[in-house]
Structure formats: C-alpha cells, structure tokens
Write a structure and sequence with these properties.
This protein is mostly helical and 152 residues long. The protein has five helices and two strands; from the N terminus they run H-H-E-E-H-H-H. Helices cover 67% and strands 5% of the residues.
Length: 152
C-alpha cells in the first residue's frame, strides 16, 4: 500500500495525538501507560515508510533514530492546544449546566431521571445559555462566591 505524503502525515499526527490521549487516560486511572512500545513500533514503521517514500519533512534523524520532524511536532502542539481549549469550554458549560439543572430539578424530572437514566431536554437549554455567554464574554463575567468560614 502506498500513501501520499498528506495521508502519511495525517496517520502520524493521529498516532502521536492518540498516543498522548491514551497515555493521559491510563495515568488518570492510576495505571502505567499500557503499551507505549506498540505505539512506538507503529510510529517507527510510519517514519521508516516516510523515509522510503522520500517525505523528508515528516521525519528527522536524531542519534541514528528516526523521530517526528520539528514541523510535525509543532502541528501536534497546535492540535493539542486547540483540543484543550475546546475541552475546557465544553466541560465548563456542561458542568455549570448540570449544576444549575440539579439546583432546579423538579419532582417529575427526578422521576424521569430514575426511569430513563438521562437528563431531560431542559438541560440543553441551560447548556446553550452558558455556551452563548462564554462565546460572547469568555470568562470575564464568571464570578466565584467563596463562603467564609465562621470559625477562627
């Protein structure tokens, strides 16, 4: 099978980003990264293929080993930056929306939640409220009320 440079580049980017995500999940679960050698073997295979096909801008040689090129590493960094930004806003609106929903949950909604195991449509209106707020103002209008302890 022959890959175009663009296809091989996307495969390599997907592999290194995916490996990063898998490693983060394993660490979050308190486990060691389960199979870096498997991902490293795949990456090595695709870098060797890049070399054979003459796609020099996808790899570099470092101490006799093929590694991802600096330009591809920068693309990975940009992808991860965009991903983290997206996750931040998505999580913020979802968590705040759920918080607000459960503060105002009705008896009927509680019963429906017990039966259906999913939140009712109303929660999406709350998510939309936060989505619009954050799109327009970012976190500029976000306030945290800290309760002071009455103990000294």
């Amino acid at each position: 099978m022959k890959f175009t440079k663009g296809e091989l580049k996307e495969l390599i980017l997907t592999l290194i980003v995916g490996s990063w995500v898998r490693e983060a999940v394993d660490e979050y679960n308190g486990e060691e990264y389960k199979s870096p050698s498997r991902h490293e073997k795949l990456l090595k295979y695709f870098l060797e293929l890049s070399e054979k096909l003459g796609y020099e801008d996808l790899f570099e040689k470092f101490k006799g080993e093929l590694i991802v090129s600096n330009s591809l590493g920068k693309e990975e960094d940009k992808i991860m930056e965009i991903f983290h930004e997206d996750v931040f806003w998505e999580e913020l609106q979802t968590r705040m929306g759920k918080r607000d929903f459960f503060k105002s949950i009705t008896k009927e909604e509680k019963e429906g939640l017990k039966k259906n195991f999913c939140l009712p449509e109303r929660v999406h209106k709350i998510y939309e409220k936060y989505e619009k707020e954050f799109e327009k103002y970012g976190i500029d209008r976000l306030e945290i009320a800290v309760q002071r302890s009455s103990t000294h």
